[in-house]
Design a protein that fits this description.
235 residues; 15 strands; 16% helix
Length: 235
């Protein structure tokens, strides 16, 4: 996924009200950017961090800028992290369509945001000559050492998604939970028991009943983000 235009660099002053961030640009101007991430963003929202923003040409937007990337201290070096959860579905769809996700090959088309279950929408619905595959995408930013964890905040919505996928699989369908890790310094993905034990328990139950858990990390730069490396999911 290439960014549509050149990203704008700045320094994060503060993130607040979940969806807002104040950023000082390199020319000294201070702007407020939209933050498309409902999580706690632990380790990714420290004041003083270098960040990169995109800018929309839509005159109807209240905030023209969107926070896309942050530079954080990884296990051994500085690393760029994609924090925009709105880009996760795009990244996963692109990776599947380009053949980089081995276990999700053979499908002929991909739909997005398709209604299913009990008043839910699946992120990606893959259609094949024989069956379909329902893919729920989760963006992952919380990292300790070289392990990525999800979620980074208690999420009843994420638990509901696990229940929906589990019910689908019990009825004979194929359901996949796809962890999209927008950074390249991790070796594995695990449920964050220390953040949301209910979600961790539900994830283990879902995997036991046949829901597939996949994870891929990404190469992140100021020009593009590409999912490229499969990671083990340890439940």
């Amino acid at each position: 996924m290439k960014f549509e235009s050149r990203l704008i660099e700045g320094i994060l002053l503060r993130r607040y009200k979940r969806f807002l961030a104040d950023v000082e640009l390199t020319d000294g101007q201070v702007i407020t950017a939209h933050t498309a991430n409902t999580g706690a963003m632990s380790g990714c929202a420290e004041p003083g961090s270098r960040v990169w923003l995109s800018c929309s040409s839509n005159p109807n937007r209240k905030y023209a800028h969107t926070w896309e990337l942050v530079e954080v201290s990884g296990a051994n070096a500085k690393v760029l992290v994609g924090i925009n959860t709105m880009k996760s579905n795009v990244l996963v769809k692109e990776a599947i369509a380009s053949g980089r996700v081995n276990s999700l090959q053979g499908y002929k088309s991909i739909q997005t945001e398709v209604p299913y279950g009990s008043n839910s929408r699946i992120d990606l619905l893959l259609h094949g000559p024989v069956d379909s595959c329902y893919v729920e995408v989760k963006n992952v930013t919380l990292v300790q050492g070289r392990t990525a964890y999800f979620p980074d905040a208690v999420s009843k919505r994420a638990v509901k998604h696990l229940d929906e996928l589990s019910n689908l699989v019990r009825q004979g369908g194929r359901g996949v939970l796809f962890f999209c890790v927008q950074r390249d310094d991790v070796d594995t993905v695990r449920p964050a028991d220390f953040v949301d034990p209910d979600y961790a328990r539900k994830l283990r139950t879902a995997v036991q009943c046949g829901v597939e858990a996949l994870a891929y990390s990404a190469q992140v730069s100021v020009s593009q983000v590409v999912l490229c490396q499969e990671l083990p999911v340890e439940v």
